[in-house]
Amino acid sequence: MVTKTEQSELSRLESQVENGGGGAWEYLCLIRKLKVRRSDKVVKHGLTILNDVKQRSALGPDEWTLYEQVAVAAMDCQCLEVAKECVKALQKKFPGSKRVGRLEGMLLEAKGAWAEAEKAYSSLLEDNPFDQVVQKRRIAMEKARGNISTAIDFLNKYLEIFVADHDAWREHAEIYVSLQMYKQAAFCCEELILAQPTISLYHLAYADVLYTLGGPENIQAAKKYYASTIDLTGGKCTRAIYGICLCSSAIASQSKSRNKDEKENELASLAAVALEKDYKYRASNKLPLLTSALKSLKLSS
């Protein structure tokens, strides 16, 4: 995650480079370090350096790192001729390189040559079945082609080997949610929370899935995870506060005990007050919509 300090430095360098103040290489290095997406800028300023013999020679071995960075950015921008030339330069310098082989597969993907890309990736995996980058490319490619069931199969096989890859679990959960396979999505969220219990987004995602599944037990559990999200964010997650309102309303409507109803209503009222305070401060023009929504839940403060 990019910090405010890093974002500020990136913006400063970007403004400097765009206005002809120099520092293009430092800017490109920072983009690579922070793993942010600035593909059009990378192509523009990267080519400026690569097309200048003096600047390119001054990079030393980093010249080839820049070729790779520009190649990937060019594919992202669909500047396929630029990407092709960068990959050619790398092939000439590093014949038989597996890393360059990945770029070749990615270029085939960018061209829409799915069958050829699959062959290229399969060949690379025969030599090294534990190549994470290639395995992830295959998953992404199947997803892009609309072959979701195949992408799920590849993800399952990938996670059998790389069980600690949190990004893969998150991707898995999102795919299952898109397919309305909420029980499977819940399992993925549980894995994420077990691995990184202090990440509020995982608690929120799990709460959303549980609420969607419905039923008394799931709603109760969803409320707990909305509450933990609020705790982890210091009360700054509006979505989680609204989730508390939804859960409390559902629980109160299902409960046969008057005492439980009063307890749920008290909690929901506190959440409603917090929401109204938040909306008054950040989006006062939307306050009537919130009030209407809370009334429909019988939670208006």
What descriptors fit this protein?
301 residues; mainly alpha; single chain; 79% helix; 0% strand; Serine Threonine Protein Phosphatase 5, Tetratricopeptide repeat
Determine the CATH superfamily of the domain at 182-254 and 264-300.
Answer: Tetratricopeptide repeat domain
What fraction, in percent, of the residue positions are helical? over 70%
Distance from first to last alpha carbon: 37 Å
What is the CATH C-level name of the domain at 182-254 and 264-300?
Mainly Alpha
Domain EMC2 TPR-like: 100-209
Subcellular location: Endoplasmic reticulum membrane
InterPro entries: EMC2-like, TPR-like_helical_dom_sf, TPR_EMC2
Family: Belongs to the EMC2 family.
Could you characterize what this model shows?
With 301 residues, this protein is mostly helical. Among the domains are: 1-95; 182-254 and 264-300, Alpha Horseshoe (Serine Threonine Protein Phosphatase 5, Tetratricopeptide repeat), CATH 1.25.40.10. The protein is 79% helix and 0% strand. The chain contains 17 helices and no strands. It has helices at 4-18, 24-34, 39-50, 53-58, 62-76, 80-93, 98-111, 114-127, 132-145, 148-161, 166-178, 182-195, 200-213, 216-232, 238-254, 258-282, 287-296. Helix 9 (132-145) packs antiparallel against helix 10. It is found in: Endoplasmic reticulum membrane. It is a peripheral membrane protein. Its main location: endoplasmic reticulum. Component of the ER membrane protein complex (EMC). This is ER membrane protein complex subunit 2.
